[in-house]
Structure formats: structure tokens, C-alpha cells
Design a protein that fits this description.
The protein is α/β, with parallel strands linked by helices. The chain has a domain at 240-343: Flavocytochrome C3, Chain A, domain 1 (Alpha-Beta Complex), CATH 3.90.700. The chain has helices spanning 15-27, 66-76, 83-102, 136-150, 217-225, 255-259, 285-299, 313-319, 321-329, 385-401, 414-425, 435-449, 456-473, 482-503, 521-525, and strands at residues 2-5, 8-11, 34-37, 54-55, 128-129, 154-157, 160-167, 173-180, 185-190, 194-196, 229-230, 235-242, 263-265, 304-307, 339-348, 351-353, 365-367, 372-373, 531-532. Strand 2, helix 1 and strand 3 form a beta-alpha-beta unit. The longest helix is centred in the last third of the chain and has 22 residues, at 482-503. Bound molecules: succinic acid. Residues 51-52, 252, 254-256, 347, 383-384, 386 line the site of succinic acid (SIN).
């Protein structure tokens, strides 16, 4: 088994991971170098698919201010946003944008070379930066990958999973075990800074806008090692995924299309948002999602529609080239036809409990981006705050790590050694479970019972079924291949979401229980206990 040492290991190559790796390489003293590991290719991540953009409160945007942004974030968060975190992140936003620009990220500009700002739901002003029209994530990811590749001494492992954290008897994370599934090879990596930037959990649901890689790996890994996780019941469903094609992984129709004035309508062109919220199409995401879901249930329709026909074709194509291209592939001209849309799992507000600088409850372990839960999003994320959080948490992590000694002089104690020996010696069962069937069942179960509308009975059915699936799966530790590792992680997250959802006997933000349709204001005043350590 290979054995190596690094000053820092970044797991995940989305915007948070890439930015942290580049900045660490530039600013920190790394006597043992830096490694970035990624599950497929360096360029592949959930961030890559972000369309709408990145919030930033820029001094040149005279209509905006940090206080307005903080207020919008807190309102959307439905009583659970940590106001101090929101303030911190908002105030850092302009600085991270400048630094990202120095690393090669270009945001869209107008004919006078001024940054363009757009609007999305629940924002009181236009403040969202975008790139390539509606290809913000793709453009940012490309720029950061290009910069990273130019730094030849940042080591990259592709097709590699993090499968276990190395933790000593004092609960300090000292590295991790990785698994290259192409080579079927495990490696022991020692490091004083393991940084999880592994993204969210979208693939837990039958319908999601997230790519195949989004299987909650970092969150499950940290939880199994005993790190505290938080807000696990809060899954955000995006209201408008493209409802054509028969794939569970759905193409996103950005909220920015509604920001540019598109309306939600039924098949006859009749609007319905006025029945649900006076902010209409630009109400917070959880409200729009439930409104669409309700309309679909009332009418039995598989989807509703987005009417963007007020935007002429050339303008639509220029502003939303990616969406335009996909619509045209399905013979839809957004300037003439309604776009069929339905809700889909999109973002995870829960995750590994962290401070803004990525520190977790476990020394030596850090988490940034969607895998982390800083408290910014509360019960419902404000649109385009996610890339901002990725960037600010990466920035702050490096600011704090650069003052630390990142030399690698651990002595492995018995506990660490035991974990290493286990991976060296354990042989795995050759008889493989039907992972595809278990995964399909799990995704359907989560969509039907732990989705947009929840209740006690559905959650209890889900709990029992997940227990059954875990028994069928039967791999607690070393797994035979990538699919098994991913399923193991998804089962862990599913169990946690259900447990947290059963405990929250109220409706708040993205967690809606029809048996408790109101907010629990007494619990709010005592701040419901929102985190947990591993049991046992
Ligand atoms: C979108 O473009 O609608 C998604 C943006 C986000 O998830 O914040």
C-alpha cells in the first residue's frame, strides 16, 4: 500500500476546493506540498453546473449594501441563519471577487466595461455577478483549473475517493485513506490539514439538478469519524428544472430567467403564483417550489411552464446561451414556447458544522463549500449565496492555515495504526450486492417520503426502509468499488436527514411538514438543537 505525506490535502475540485488549493499554494508555507484529490476529473464538480451566478456586494453597485444583503439572506433563511456569519461573509464578498479575478475569473461586463448585476428570487436589488451569461460555474471552474494546472507543483489525483479519515486516540485527524478506483489501489496519506470540499447530496433524490458525483461523500466521511454535523433536514429543491428528457439528473433553468421577468404558468398560460405569495415568481425558493408542487398535484400535471416569451430570441440566446441551447435541442424556442419545468433536489443547507474558516469539531479536519454548514443559509438558501460561501470559506481557511505549522511530523498511535492495518489486511467479500437496485429504491424513497412535503408517517416508513436497505447492502467499511462507496455514503446521509426531519416537528424553510405546517416559535426562541455527533 502506498504511503505519502502532504502539508495539506484538498478533497474535491469544485470552486471551493480549487480556490483553497491555489491560494494555499500561493500564500502558505507547505514543506510537504499540497495534494488535491478528485473523484472523476479535475474539471468535474457540482459547481461547474451553477448557472445563475455569485452574489457580491460590490462598491460600484450603488443600489446595494451589505446590510441589505444580510437582511435578504436572513429573511430567506427562515429564522435559522446565523446573522454574524451572514455579516462576515457579506463583508468579505468584494475582496474575494477581486482575488478570483486575479486568478483568472472573468465576470460579465457591459459595453462600458462595468460589471453586470442580475437578480434572482428574494433579492431586493440586482447584485448577482455572472459569467458566460448563464455558465457562471463552468467559467469559474475553467479559469481556476487553468490557473491550478499552471502551478506544476500542486499534485492532483483524479479518479480517487477519500474513504476513511485517519484519526488518533485524541480525536485529531492526521490524514486519510484514499482509493483510486481505476487502479483499484489504496493509499495512506498523512497530513495535518485535511480539507473536505466534496459538495452536496443531490444524488440521494430521484430528481436532482446535481451531477452523478454528488453523493455526500465528505459529509458521510466526517460524520463516521465523529465530526459534528448540523441542519441535516434542510434539502433545497429548485423550483424550475427542465422537465423534458427521462433522466433523473435534470438540467437547470436558472432562477435568473425569472429574475429577467419570466412568469410561471399552467398549460393554458394562466399564472398561479398570486395564490401563494405577493412576491410572486421572486418569492423565496422554498415557497415557489411548494407552489409548483401543489399546482402539479391539484391538476395531475407532470410539470408547469415558464413563460419567457417577453424576451426576444436574440436577447435570450445572448443572456442565457446554455439554457437556450438545451431548449432548442428539444425544439423549444423560449421566445415562442413555454418551457416545461418542475422541482428537483438542488442544494444542501446541512453539512459538517464549521466556522467561517472551515474549522470543524475535529482538529486537523476542515470543510468548505456545500459540504460545510456555516449557518449562512439557515433553513433555506438565498439564490447565488452558495458560490459566495464557497469562495469566502476557502479564503478564510487559507488565512487561518497560513499561520499554522503545516509540517508533517506525526507519530501514529495505536488507533491510527489499527485503521491503516485494516485497509492493508482486510479482504472484501467477492459477492456484490445489487447496488443499482438499492440505489434506485433509495432515491425513490427519498423523493416520495423525505421530499418537498413531509409528515411523520412518511418519515417513519423511510426510516424503516433505509434500515432494510442498509441490511441488504451490508458493507460497513472496505467496499469493492466506487459505486459501493458512494451508496454507503448516501445511506449514511439518508439516515441522518430522516432522523433530523423526524426531530423537527414544525415547518421551516425547505423543511415542510404537513402534520406541523407552522413554524415553532417557542423552539425558535430557544434555538432548536441543530447538530449531532456520531452515536456510539
Ligand atoms: C439558479 O441559477 O437558479 C441557481 C442558482 C443557485 O442555486 O443559487
Amino acid at each position: 500500500m502506498k504511503h505519502s505525506k502532504y502539508s495539506a490535502v484538498v478533497v474535491g475540485s469544485g470552486i471551493a476546493g480549487l480556490y483553497a488549493a491555489i491560494k494555499l499554494h500561493k500564500e502558505a508555507h507547505l514543506p510537504n506540498g499540497i495534494l488535491i484529490i478528485t473523484k472523476t476529473k479535475l474539471i468535474e464538480s457540482n459547481s461547474k453546473y451553477a448557472q445563475g451566478g455569485m452574489v457580491s456586494v460590490m462598491p460600484e453597485n450603488k443600489l446595494d449594501s451589505c446590510s441589505l444583503h444580510i437582511e435578504d439572506t436572513i429573511k430567506a433563511g427562515a429564522g435559522l441563519t446565523d446573522a454574524k456569519v451572514a455579516e462576515y461573509i457579506s463583508k468579505r464578498s468584494a475582496q474575494v471577487v477581486k482575488e478570483l479575478q486575479n486568478f483568472g475569473v472573468d465576470f460579465d461586463r457591459d459595453e462600458n466595461n462595468q460589471l453586470k448585476f442580475t437578480k434572482e428570487a428574494a433579492h431586493s436589488v440586482n447584485r448577482i455577478l455572472h459569467a458566460g451569461g448563464d455558465a457562471t460555474g463552468f467559467c469559474m471552474e475553467n479559469a481556476l483549473v487553468k490557473y491550478l494546472i499552471s502551478k506544476k507543483d500542486i499534485k492532483v489525483y483524479e479518479q480517487t475517493l477519500a474513504v476513511e479519515l485517519l484519526k488518533n486516540s485524541k480525536n485529531i485527524c492526521q490524514g486519510l485513506i484514499t482509493y483510486n478506483y481505476e487502479e483499484n489501489e489504496y493509499e495512506i496519506i498523512e497530513s495535518p490539514a485535511v480539507i473536505l470540499a466534496t459538495g452536496g447530496v443531490g444524488q440521494l433524490y430521484k430528481y436532482t439538478t446535481n451531477p452523478d458525483i454528488t453523493t455526500g461523500d465528505g459529509i458521510a466521511l466526517a460524520y463516521r469519524a465523529g465530526a459534528i454535523v448540523k441542519d441535516m433536514e434542510f434539502v433545497q429543491f429548485h423550483p424550475t428544472a427542465f422537465a423534458l428528457g427521462d433522466n433523473g439528473t435534470m438540467f437547470l433553468i436558472s432562477e435568473a430567467v425569472r429574475g429577467e421577468g419570466a412568469k410561471l404558468v399552467d398549460k393554458n398560460g394562466k399564472t398561479f403564483m398570486e395564490k401563494y405569495d405577493k412576491r410572486l415568481e421572486l418569492a423565496p425558493r422554498d415557497i415557489v417550489t411548494r407552489a409548483i408542487f401543489n399546482e402539479m398535484q391539484l391538476t395531475g400535471a407532470k410539470n408547469v411552464y415558464l413563460d419567457a416569451t417577453h424576451i426576444n430570441e436574440l436577447k435570450f440566446e445572448k443572456r442565457f446561451p446554455t439554457i437556450y441551447g438545451t431548449c432548442r435541442e428539444y425544439n423549444i424556442n423560449p421566445a415562442e414556447n413555454y418551457i416545461p419545468v418542475s422541482p428537483s433536489a438542488h442544494y444542501y443547507m446541512g453539512g459538517i458544522k464549521t466556522k467561517v474558516d472551515g474549522t470543524t469539531s475535529m482538529e486537523g479536519l476542515y470543510a468548505i463549500g456545500e459540504a460545510a454548514c456555516t449557518g449562512l443559509h439557515g433553513a433555506n438558501r438565498l439564490a447565488s449565496n452558495s458560490i459566495l460561501e464557497c469562495a469566502v470559506t476557502a479564503f478564510e481557511l487559507v488565512e487561518s492555515l497560513k499561520n499554522k505549522n503545516l509540517s508533517n511530523n506525526f507519530v501514529q498511535d495505536e488507533k491510527t495504526q489499527k485503521t491503516i492495518n485494516f485497509y492493508k489486511e482486510e479482504t472484501i467479500k467477492t459477492e456484490h450486492q445489487n447496488v443499482d437496485a438499492i440505489l434506485k429504491h433509495l432515491k425513490e424513497l427519498m423523493w416520495d417520503k423525505v421530499g418537498i412535503i413531509r409528515n411523520q408517517q412518511k418519515l417513519e416508513v423511510a426510516k424503516a426502509e433505509i434500515e432494510n436497505l442498509k441490511e441488504q447492502f451490508a458493507f460497513a467499511y472496505k467496499c469493492p468499488n466506487r459505486n459501493h462507496y458512494e451508496l454507503r455514503n448516501l445511506l449514511t446521509i439518508a439516515e441522518l436527514i430522516v432522523e433530523f426531519a423526524l426531530n423537527r416537528k414544525e415547518s421551516r424553510g425547505a423543511h415542510f411538514r404537513e402534520d406541523y405546517p407552522q413554524k415553532d416559535l417557542i423552539a425558535e426562541s430557544h434555538q432548536l438543537s441543530r447538530s449531532t455527533r456520531m452515536k456510539g
